[in-house]
Amino acid sequence: MRIELISTGDEVITGSIDDTNASFLSRELIDAGLQVDRRHTCGDSLEELMAVISEVSKRNSIVIVTGGLGPTNDDLTTEAAARVAGMPLELNEQWLERMRYWFEQRGRTMAKSNLKQAMLPQGSLFINNPIGTACGFILKIDQALFIFCPGVPKELKAMWESSIKEMVISFTRETIPRTHLIRLFLMGIGESNLAELLSKLEMPQGITLGDRAIYPLIELKLIGHDASDSDMFLLLDELMAIVSPYYVCRDSYTLLEQLTQKEIKLGPINAVDGLCRGWFLIHLQELFTNFVTCSVLNTDENTLTDTDNDLRLEKELLEHVPAHNKITLLPVTDESKLQEITKHEKAAVYPHHYELSYHLDFTEHEHQRSISGDVIISFKDNVYKPGSYTRNRDFLAHLCCVELYKALVREPLITPEDCAITVLAQSDSMPHPIED
Hints:
Elements: E1 2-8, H1 10-13, H2 20-31, E2 38-42, H3 46-57, E3 61-66, H4 77-85, E4 89-91, H5 93-105, E5 119-121, E6 125-127, E7 136-141, E8 144-149, H6 153-172, E9 179-187, H7 191-198, E10 207-214, E11 217-225, H8 229-243, E12 247-250, H9 255-261, E13 264-266, E14 269-273, H10 279-287, E15 292-296, H11 307-320, E16 326-331, H12 335-342, H13 345-348, E17 352-364, E18 367-379, H14 393-408, E19 419-428
Parallel strand pairs: 1-2, 1-3, 3-8, 14-15, 14-16
Antiparallel strand pairs: 4-5, 6-7, 7-8, 9-11, 9-12, 10-11, 13-17, 16-17, 17-18, 18-19
């Protein structure tokens, strides 16, 4: 048995709206261990709807159809399904009463056109819609089991959570091999170089690797089709040994969510962006829930030659920034720090150096914790050059936020393949996580 999706609607097929329903269902299904085999899109044409339903019905499939269950003339999915199945439409009294109640509760009169939404193919089983007037229904057509759902995203999601998810899991328990998916998010390595690193791995039966670029990250996917857990975790260990210098996090790249799961709560952040002209603020707001105050220094490569004036302005600004929960990103101008960099073999070969400093006080599992650090990031590229694509201001700002995240979760800083990270100082008042 396989799983297929059909999305209906002229707005979807013409690109007027994005097909978020298919994306949502694909994600939800893979999280449940079920991979979609094929997705179809069809406009509001009775002939086209019948054609795609007829085609899919010839396969031993579970098919989830979204859209076309409304009260208007262009909502044709129910009629198309009934015609392909060779079943007449009949009034579902239970859903009609449910619709009347829905309108009464809102002080509205139900239009005659809404009666259409209670007309279902004979032999189908209706599915409750907890927040709308379009019920879903299940209908077996030929070899396929169809689950018809409304196209309004919030209604689809409500129905998925309340009933459809459990139905699909139940229907597929003994008929579809489970798919296991592990996502690793990496930063600082290109796809071609990553492919070369992974080329020598021996892949167990049923396990494949895939990747996609989501600048400035790469999502590396470990996919097991009915593979054993032991094979999956053994290969994961081998993968981590290879990609650890670039590893950011696993399963979901939402740093806020990751910190919330670890019960790390930070107060307001005071930041100084002396390099990225606001990009640092944008990425800091993705990392911290509380308000971020960020002073932006409009520096460029030329102003750095006027060191006396530049350093004076920088000093005056830093004097007024609260030391509590303070983060600064500045060019390296201190001679002693430049000399320290030359002691590190990798950093010494890069000509451009930028300094990330931080002192953060926060709670973890309701316990007080403080971390601080002084890190030099050395680039081959000059972030002041607007034509530099791979290692520009945006990349530097993002990299700094990733390094802050890694310090917060006590993991080694990442080391991009064409950069150098020099840790001048690093401290943690609670170097080991609290045991549950």
